[in-house]
Amino acid sequence: MIISLDPCVQSENQHDSPSNALAPVFDLGRVQYSLPASLISLVVASDVLAMGLSSNVIVLIELAHSDQVVKVPIPRKPAEFSIYKLFLDPSGRHLIITSLEGENWYLFKSWKKPKQLKTFKMVMKLNGTIYEAILDAEEDFFKSQERYLNPVFTLPERQAITGINSDFFPSIDPKKALVVVITTSRIYQFTGMLPRRSEEGGRVFGTLFAAYREIAPKISELPGNIRYSELHYYTLNSGQSQSLPRDIAWMTSPGIYHGMLNFQSTTDDFIDGAQLFPYPTLSTSPSAPNDSPQPELPISMALTEFHFVLLYSDRIAAISVLDESFAYEEVLPLKHGEIVRALTADPVRKTYWVYTDQSLFELIVGNEDRDVWKINLQKENFDVALKYAKTAGQRDLILSSHAHALLKAMRYFPAARAFAQCSVPFEDVALKFLDVNERDALRSYLMLRLEQTRKSDLTQRMMLATWLVEFYLSKCDELDDLIAASSTMHDIDNVKTGRSILEEDVRRFLDLHKDDLEPDTIYELIQSHGRTDVYLFYAALIGQVERVVEHWILVEEDWVKAIDTISRQSNLELYYRFGPVLMRNAPRETVDSWIRQPTLDPLRLVPALLQFQFAPRDPLSPNQATRYLNHVIFEQLNTSSTLHNLVITLHTSPAAGSNEDDGPLLRFLAMAPVDPLTGKPYYDLDYALRLCSEAGRIQPCVHIYSQMGLWESSVDLALEKGDLELAKLNADKPEDDPPLRKKLWLKIAKFVVQDKKDIKMAMRFLESTELLKIEDILPFFPDFVVIDDFKDEIANALESYSAQIESLKSEMDDATRSAESMKEYIVGLKNRFVTVDAGERCSVCTFHILTRQFYVFPCHHAFHADCLVGLTKEYLPAHALRRLLVLQDEIVKGKAGSVDRSDAKLIDGNTISWQPETQRALLSQNFATPTQNGHRQTNTIGRNLLSAGDRLRDLIVPDALVTVITSPAGWIPGIGGAQKNTLVESEAGKRLEKLRSELEDILASACPLCESVIAGLDKSFTKGESDITWEV
């Protein structure tokens, strides 16, 4: 049979792959099983297949294990017992075998043989009675499986019941049930509540049917002359315990009565959308004449999800439930004389079986929903069609058809959504909406297409986003025009609200798709519509704040908003770029924004600050440039000399309206930070002096002179301008140089006396300083001046001098008395003595102290003279050592060598013996240095005399000094005897005695042991690195 297709369906087939289009929905296959006897009845449930043979044998096959076939014979001879029909519950465990003789048997899945149901003979009475029975599958020899069998209801017409089915309402009301009963011409619906607890023996349905003894159930009648009918259900998820059937079909004489079960129905009719499908005419049916084909009644039927499967005497056919069209027809491969029995279905596994008396066929249903989308598309059930579409081409065709249908129905926004999901060309959709002037729907379509476009398709996204911006702006213009033209309308507030919402949508769109837009194009587009608010929002959104600032400055001249815009962002370059113009027009607000941004580089703001150098200023308002610089210098502690110099430049710059007040400049000069290394301010003193001089700022110049240390210049300049107080202030600044201070005060005094020529003023001037007296300023007075004007001051000065003289005289008397007292004390020291024990020993050599000349100190330390010299030289400082060497040289060498041999006289007939060479040899020996490699080093004495420390100590010869110290007074080395001679009285002898006395003062000025303790605090306890005596 050729099925004509709608054009849209034909175009869809072009999208489907060939294999998918040719995949069959139904396929009939013969089961490879040899029947040992004629097949009478077959049932299938939960993959369990049960066959009743004419030989009274039940064949059981679990389809999951089809190689395992179980045969259960019924203990009856074929002549005594003939199988009529088998009934299998959905679980596939309980099987009831009925016979033509009215005898019934029960077979449980695990049993080896069936058991007879003796009380079930009455069931075979075809009188329309409904029985409720309970069977027990427990094997007990003394107990019957027939626990309960009782009639619960009899149909009024007493027609034979051909089908019955019951369902509970588990998800809605678990105690409610629906029972559907059919005869050959009627269908009955019984519903009611079940008892909470079953009655004795497990009775359940008695209560339900008892309600219909007085009232009639819901009955639908389809009269006909057929003697058989079938009832079929279809359940989507039949494997689930609480699943309910969805579809119902009743095969009757006029046709197939079918509909959907509605368990939530509020009436007594639970079949929704009930329809009668008349049987189709089979054109190739052998029983129908070719000229006038007549519908043929099917032998049996089955219900699938989308088809009625009809079984005829020679063929099988499938009719679509959706459009009642032929979906499948196939002639059965029957043998001669083979009789078709029926069509059965597995309600759980959804398998379908055709059986004859000699063969078994399986009808494989696959890809059943292949054409469901196509049928629903023809019916314009687009949602259902889309649900069953399997390929992208099918979905696209459904969406396209749906979109066109919506557009035709003038449902533009849903059409836009549908068009955005299909492949209809973009330009076609745009033209369709523009033709009907639906720009809002077109905007919705563009938005959806933009969301679906890949991020990598930059050009497409940019075009869509730009067009959407144009639509948004145009819509805003339309609302503006509507508001302007409808100012008197009562709904003007609604229009304004709509405009606000649209403007918010514009901002949201720009924020969401800013990466898809080209800024220059969008700027031009926004400006062409005159949307300043959108322009500013977009510029700020993409970070181009400079455009916002330029707008406020160049267009609006709103300086405060420009400053606020700059302050709200983090790009410092905008501060530098727009600083000059903002400083010129809104200086206070500009400086405030600068102060709030501490990361600014003040040096880059210098061009903006220079705007104030010559700009007119309000004398009542502060200089904003210097305010910022003061903040940078004193708060941020900036040390840049450029900024410090700029402050002075601004203070000294001539400006209209300025009164040239030196106060701000002087305050800055006085408080300006100084460099801790140089002690000078960070600004350039020469530059500041030049600016102040050119501007005629005298007080600042004086201050700068003082900063430079040019005190005289500062005082001269102050006096030149007649500022006496300033001159006196600077005259007192060199505190560490009293002569200079006096000189500066004399300059001021000369100015007061000679320039002011006011004697009284000059006298008052003297009271302001203690450095000058009346006599200091008298030379500045004229030669012929009347003394009466300052005679009191002169008298006061003379009295002051007299008092000073008396004070000095008193101090001199005190000093004289102190000197006399000291002389008396010194004389008393000569008579001071120390008692020395006979056993006293030298503190150095430990020999008895009385063996040779010794010294005793107040601390009771005693030393031999030579030991004292050797010990004392170890702690004496370098200058004392050098003096000791000089004394040693003059006493030993110089004096001995200066005695003239020709002056020696005979005394008492003896001749003075003189041996200067011996003394020189001794001195040179003592001064000799160690030898190296057997040769004496030369010219070392000069170098040793110039060295300090240990080298000087090596040059001191204790023996030579001791010889001089221990010699009697008046004795000269080289002259024998101790006779008194004239040389002692000579001047040389006196000088020698003086030198020896000085030598003793150096050596015996302090105890060397006590003094060395202090002098050796910084010396190590060990004498060398090799000393191990200090190791622990």
TrEMBL record:
Any GO BP: endosome organization
Domain Pep3/Vps18 beta-propeller: 24-365
GO molecular function terms listed in the Swiss-Prot or TrEMBL record: protein-macromolecule adaptor activity; zinc ion binding
CHCR repeats: 596-761
Record-linked Pfam families: Pep3_Vps18, VPS18_RING_C
Subcellular location: Endomembrane system
PROSITE patterns, alphabetized: CHCR
Any GO CC annotation of this UniProt entry: endosome
Segments forming domain Pep3/Vps18 RING C-terminal: 836-897
Protein's membrane topology: Peripheral membrane protein
Keywords carried by this UniProt record: Coiled coil, Membrane, Metal-binding, Zinc, Zinc-finger
Family membership noted in the UniProt record: Belongs to the VPS18 family.
Protein's name in the database: Pep3/Vps18/deep orange family-domain-containing protein
Organism of provenance: Multifurca ochricompacta
Lineage: Eukaryota, Fungi, Dikarya, Basidiomycota, Agaricomycotina
